[in-house]
Amino acid sequence: MPIPPSINLRPFHEADTEFFAGMAADERVTRFIGDGQPWDQETIQVRIRAALQQDPLDAEGSSRWFLAAEATEPVGIVVSTRKDEGIEIGYWVSPDHWGRGIAGAMVNSALVTIPEVYGTQELIARVDPANAASAKLLTRNGFKLESHHEGLDHYTLA
């Protein structure tokens, strides 16, 4: 059995913009996000500004982004956002690192980091039903499918 990669999460910085923008403009990455299309530069900049704006953590909609790195190399982004029903997590893996267990290692790190940041274990995730790999990853890490709403499967950490 292969050893899972060691992933560190650190807060997203302005210097991480180019890495994120590359993923946001890549149709392979965005196919299960939003409308499934790559993001234009304006959308990317709006999202990055929001990510860097440190809203109070107890405010609904407040978010924290994290750069996932293997050693010093960026491999993905983890996003967390406060919602009514809990802290929603999402993750993007750079296609250069697909198939290596990076997403699983990122979720494992997120399950430690995000509850510490927000002070709650109430984590949720929304997944496109066609994204079987993500659904499997979440259930393997203790999430349970709760409902289907507006075209997405809704998971909660059990």
How would you sum up this structure, described in words?
- This is GNAT family N-acetyltransferase.
- The structure is a single chain.
- α1 (17-24) packs across α3.
- The protein has 158 residues and is α+β, with helices and mostly antiparallel strands.
- It has one domain: Aminopeptidase, CATH 3.40.630.
- A 7-stranded mixed β-sheet has the order 1-2-3-4-5-7-6, sandwiched between helices.
- Helices cover 32% and strands 31% of the residues.
- The chain has 5 helices and 7 strands, in the order βαααβββαβαββ.
The CATH topology turns out to be Aminopeptidase
| SSE run | EHHHEEEHEHEE
Q: How many structural domains does the protein architecture include?
A: 1
Overall average pLDDT: 93
Please state the CA-atom Rg, rounded to the nearest Å: 15 Å
Spatial strand sequence of the major β-sheet = 1-2-3-4-5-7-6
Shape: globular
- Helices, by number, come to 5
Q: Estimate percent helicity.
A: 25-40%
CATH architecture: 3-Layer(aba) Sandwich
Q: List low-confidence stretches.
A: none
Structural class call reads: alpha+beta
Question: Which CATH class is shown?
Answer: Alpha Beta
Query: Hey, roughly how much beta strand do the residues contain?
Result: 25-35%
Number of strands: 7
CATH superfamily: Gcn5-related N-acetyltransferase (GNAT)
- Largest β-sheet summary: 7 strands, mixed
What distance lies between the first and last C-alpha atoms, to the nearest angstrom? Answer: 26 Å
Pfam families: Acetyltransf_3
GO molecular function, one term: acyltransferase activity
Organism: Glutamicibacter bergerei
Protein name: GNAT family N-acetyltransferase
